[in-house]
Amino acid sequence: MEEGSGSVNHYYGGTSSSPITNIAQDHLLTILLLLPIDAILSLSMTCKRFKDIITSSDTLWKSLSSRDFGSTCVDALLYKYMHQISWMRLYKKTYQLDSVCCHRLFDTHGGDLDLPSARASHSLNFVSNCLVMFGGGCEGGRHRDDTWVAYIGNDFEKTLKWKTVNSGIPSGRFGHTCVEMSDFLVLFGGINDNGNRQNDTWVGQVTHNEKNGITFSWKMLDVGAIAPPSRGAHAASSIDDKRIVVHGGIGLHGLRFGDTWLLEVSENLCFGTWHEIVSHPSPPPRSGHTLTCIGRSKTILFGGRGLGYEILDDVWLLDTCQSYLKWTQIVYDLRNIPDGVSLPRVGHSATMVLGGRLLIYGGEDSSRHRKDDFWILDISPIQSITMHSTTLSSKRVSTKMWKRWRSNGYEPKRRSFHRACTDPSGRYLYVFGGMVDGFLQPAEPSGLRFDGELFLVELVL
Predict the structure, then answer these.
(1) Residue 195 belongs to domain spanning
(2) Residue 419 above 90 pLDDT?
(3) Total number of domains in the chain
């Protein structure tokens, strides 16, 4: 990213010219949109016509933003910035991102505040312009069975008001997964107070009603006789509007899984079908890791706790195109990781943010030291990988895959097993709860301390 940032500034000074007179401008724009950004910037130095188009066409830069950042992100940025900044400048600012600013969020709606209680290993999602939170573990080894919704809409910096909209369905649990699938949520698995693992699948939906305001409903998804073994502390990610992938977790007797399952749902989300993906090689068994869709049917797995309770820092790519389903390990170089920084972690969050980046926050290391650091995993070389490559697993994809981002503003507590999600623009990351460091209390013989704070992480443009 650092090298790319310099390139953006350098290329805008090109002066050489080589007239191109026989190609219509709309055709040139179509060609440019097929090229990576560095190639486009290089062309601005080759001739005056390319330079004029690249430096003056707002249509080009809006299309590049949509291509590289996603159409949903562009719609959100259009709402907030279109009358303040050009698309070229906005693209450059996004390209050069290197820091975040944290803000503490308060609910100041007076009276008796209705707020979610402290918890960890819950779920937190952004769907239908709302934050939705379900379940989690809390003090005394108990689980939660409550569902909370906070409407946000397009005002991502406003004060939030939580509302309890359901209780008891699904049954209380922690260590489950809940992922967005279009305008729905799909919840799978988890662990209850008695240590029982679940393998049920639920669909949740937000409803906006003029009379009753925001409501939320859960329904169990009919998946037939085949389902993954019961588990908790697994990882899951949606791939598209009809598929999610689940990997790993802890089953009966504390056994850690290394299996991968794909759920395909029907058009009306009334039933689904589970398929196990068998691939060699595949990630070793683990729990407390993350799965994140990076687009184009590709999903990234990172970290977790292995069979021997070791904390992992490996990166794996799962490609779920129709023709093949295959895991490939992404081997990277640690030479750019600063001395004294521990990259392996469990109980972290990994979220796609503005600019098509994977932002990893928090977690804990092998000594159970909790973290408050922000890391960017550069997925640009990963996205271009074809799964037909026979040499990928034996070569280092990039020596600069990892970059630590600076953080300023509010300083939240170090935490693990929190949950995080972004708004549609990918610029605002919401973080709630988790395990935090604290003094031992008589009511907490294990030294576990649960957090009930919601804070906002803003990518600084």
Answers:
(1) 100-459
(2) yes
(3) 2
